[in-house]
Amino acid sequence: MNHTRSLISSAQALRQIFITPVRASRVGIHLFKPLQDATQTRFFQQSHCLKLREYRPPVEKPPINEAIRASFVQVVNDEGDLDPPTRLEDVLESFDHAEFFLLQVQEGDHNNPPVCKVYNKKEVRAHEKAKAKSARSTKVTLKQIELNWAIDAHDLSHRLKQLSTFLEKGRRVEILLTTKKRKRNPTVDEIKQVMQSVLDTIREAGGTQTKAMEGELGKQLRITAQKNT
User: Fold this and answer.
1) How far apart are CA 186 and CA 147, in angstroms?
2) Is the domain of 181 the same as that of 154?
3) Does the keyword Protein biosynthesis apply (predicted)?
4) CA distance linking residue 85 with residue 97, whole number of Å
């Protein structure tokens, strides 16, 4: 009887040592598998998003001088006509690189070489500066001036000087005429005087209204003006 119990105990012990860890390891593998799948899914989503991004090729500038990839080129002469195809090396040796450069203005094909033109560096810089200056001058900045219908004479004079200065500099000015809380209501004469002063200042500065007035006289009124060009 004791021998039988010892056999059963030995069998149970062996079962606990070998079979139970295998089951536990299987459970562990089963629990770990979804984490692995989630990682793979996340990696796939990231790589898929990268593929969906729009490809934007870099903007390439036209090649100049030795960067022109052609053995022969056609140069635009002073009359605006094309010279016969000439070796690129000969063209590059025909001018001073300190003052001029050769720019490819049109790509070539199987039948025709690239079209190039010789430019003066000083003239190109002067043209770029003039172009940048013109762009800055055409860019109009909007300035805003707020006036109270019941404004006193001193403050009104100061604001009108600002208005005149902005208009003379070519700025577009937005004048907002309004009432303020906890301030007395303006009289009819004050409303007329402020309105007339603003219109006179715009006219004397050489400006005009760029669009119709918006709002109501004596309450909130918006005037937009700019100097005539």
Assistant:
1) 12
2) yes
3) yes
4) 21
Structural contact between residues 118 and 68, judged by C-beta atoms closer than 8 angstroms: no
Number of domains the chain contains: 2
Instruction: Establish if 37 belongs to a structural domain.
Output: no
Of the candidates 169, 178, 170, which has an alpha carbon nearest to the alpha carbon of residue 198?
Answer: 178
Q: Which domain holds residue 153?
A: 138-227
What three-state secondary structure class fits 114?
coil
Same domain, yes or no: 148 and 209: yes
The tens digit of pLDDT for each residue in 84-109 reads: 999 999 999 999 999 999 999 999 89
Q: Is residue 226 helix, strand or coil?
A: strand
Q: Give the pLDDT score at 40.
A: 53
Is the domain of 143 the same as that of 213?
yes
Task: In whole angstroms, give the CA distance from residue 100 to residue 106.
Answer: 18
Does residue 148 contact residue 180 with C-beta atoms inside 8 Å? yes
C-alpha count within 13 angstroms, C-beta hemisphere, residue 186: 22
CATH number at residue 88: 3.10.20
31 in a structural domain = no
Q: Is residue 33 part of a domain?
A: no
- For strands 142-148 and 172-178, give the pairing: parallel
pLDDT of residue 183: 77
